[in-house]
Amino acid sequence: MNARNIRALVQKEDWDWLTVYDGDERVGKSTLSIGCMLAADPLMCRHIECEDYDKFLARVSFSFDDWLSVIQSTPDGEGIMYDEASVLGREAMKDHNLRMIRVMTTIGMRNLDQRWTFPSMWMLDPYLREGRVKTRAYVFTKNIDGVVQRGFVTWYVRKKYPWPRADGSTIWWLNAFTDSFTPISDLGPTYAELWEKYEEKANAHKRSVYQAKTADPKKQIALNLRERGMSIREIAPIIGMSVPQVGTWLKGTADKYVPPTSRLRPDKRFKT
Q1: Which CATH class is domain 2-203?
Q2: Residue pair 29/22 in contact by the 8 Å Cβ criterion
Q3: Is the separation of the CB atoms in 40 and 33 below 8 Å?
Q4: Given CA atoms 65, 68, 74, 78 in this order, what sign does their dihedral have?
Q5: Ordered strands of the 133-144 beta sheet
Q6: How far apart are CA 82 and CA 68, in angstroms?
Q7: What is the pLDDT along the chain (272 residues), one digit of tens a residue?
């Protein structure tokens, strides 16, 4: 119901709305974002139930250029999704992020209901985090009876007050409520098919990133180390990047088991 209320504000009250879905890798950020898009738009659900998946997938982007194209092709007042949005506060002076901020300063008149998935809310540029994001969904797992389960979220809303926090900001993030959600495929056969097509599009983007001739050498090093069986937390300090950023690059790549190097017992014939 909240998703539809936001859509009504966007379409009838001349608002634009940005929700960020953040959390560790593979906890369900994309699942929740897609679920909220569908909950807000019954007509889109009808398209999916009629096996017309292209209309939804045309609203999903995985790169900055794709995101711009989606904005240009989406009618005012509709919802769009930017999966693993690449906007880093620590790199805010880079051309990419300057372009992103310029776009966001002028996009308000389009009244779009935007959803971005992101590794960490606090990595966002301050202008975006404190000036444009209206709601935050922190997605996480729970350990229940020794089994790690996905599908949990705590929702936050942004409020501006005249009194500052300890860091001087007057923006406060208030805890609204905690909830749970289920996989998209649980909604029915056509939704399971939608999820498969979404993953196909996501994997195609990842392959294009890995195979790009102008790829960031740090990304290539990270991929090579991942292929050798190293964890994301082990890779991050080697290439001098944060764990969330490396997780964004390597999202969807599985850990590979690398057998430990054999340790021979010292030969008793020699003194050690």
Answers
A1: alpha beta
A2: yes
A3: no
A4: positive
A5: 60-61, 79-82, 113-118, 17-22, 133-144, 147-160, 171-180
A6: 10
A7: 587 778 887 877 777 899 999 999 889 999 999 999 999 999 999 999 999 999 999 999 998 888 889 998 999 889 999 998 755 444 444 666 666 767 776 676 778 999 999 888 888 878 888 888 999 999 999 999 999 999 999 999 999 898 888 888 899 999 999 999 999 999 999 999 999 999 999 988 877 766 654 456 778 788 888 888 888 888 888 888 888 888 877 876 554 434 444 444 444 333 33
CB-based contacts of 48: which residues, under 8 Å, 6+ apart? 38, 56, 190, 191, 194
Domain with CATH 3.40.50 in the chain: 2-203
State whether residue 135 is helix, strand or coil. strand
d(CA 193, CA 30): 15
Q: How many other CB atoms sit within 10 Å of the CB of residue 171?
A: 16
pTM: 0.73
**Cβ pair 62, 200 in contact under 8 A:** no
- For residues 5-39, b (16+ Cβ closer than 10 Å) or e, as one string? ebbebbeeeebbbbbbbbbbbebbbbbbbbbbbbe
Distance CA 130, CA 186 (A): 35
Instruction: List helix spans (H) across 107-188.
Output: 126-127
Within the chain, what is the greatest distance between any pair of CA atoms? 86
| Chain-centroid distance, C-alpha 138 | 11
